[in-house]
Amino acid sequence: MTDAKDERRPAGELEAAVMAALWAAGTPLTPGQVQAELASGLARTTVTTILSRLHDKGVVDRRPQGRGYAYHPMQDAQGLTARRMHTELDRDHDRETVLARFVAQLSPDDEQLLRQLLEADER
Predict the structure, then answer these.
(1) Which residues of 67-78 are buried (b: 16+ CB within 10 A; e: fewer)?
(2) What is the value of pTM for the model shown?
(3) Can you tell me the distance from the alpha carbon of 43 to that of 35, in angstroms, rounded to the nearest whole number?
(4) Is there a contact between 27 and 73 (Cβ–Cβ < 8 Å)?
(5) What is the pLDDT of residues 11-30, one digit of tens each?
(6) Cα 18 to Cα 37: distance, rounded to the nearest angstrom
(7) Which of 104, 14, 20 is nearest to 114 (CA)?
(8) Which secondary structure element, helix H or strand E, spans residue 70, and what is its range?
(9) Are the C-beta atoms of 28 and 72 separated by less than 8 Å?
(10) How many Å apart are CA 28 and CA 54, to the nearest integer?
(11) pLDDT, tens digit, 9 for 90 and up, residues 59-70
(12) Contact 31, 68 (CB under 8 A)
């Protein structure tokens, strides 16, 4: 029988939890403060590693505080989702096909919303 605490969680899940804590706080947090917000039993060193990786990716910024850093998100959840979409788009050399397939898979409501956004941007 495996102890649930010993099971490894995907990095994306941990990063999402850390980001949720930062967004909810609305103010820069130290790794110890993030750890307390998560109340998940993660070691502070694990939280620090996650925050460092998010900083390396440009998702969070940090400022000196005490002997370490306090971290804050660079953008809101929707901005981060848009950034991920751009990252995925940039991974493929055939942008036209990727975009065409993306649009083809949109629901009618999402397609209409996208049209409205593109038309508003043209003005």
Answers:
(1) eebbbebeeeee
(2) 0.71
(3) 7
(4) no
(5) 688 999 999 999 999 999 99
(6) 9
(7) 104
(8) strand 68-73
(9) yes
(10) 14
(11) 999 999 999 999
(12) yes
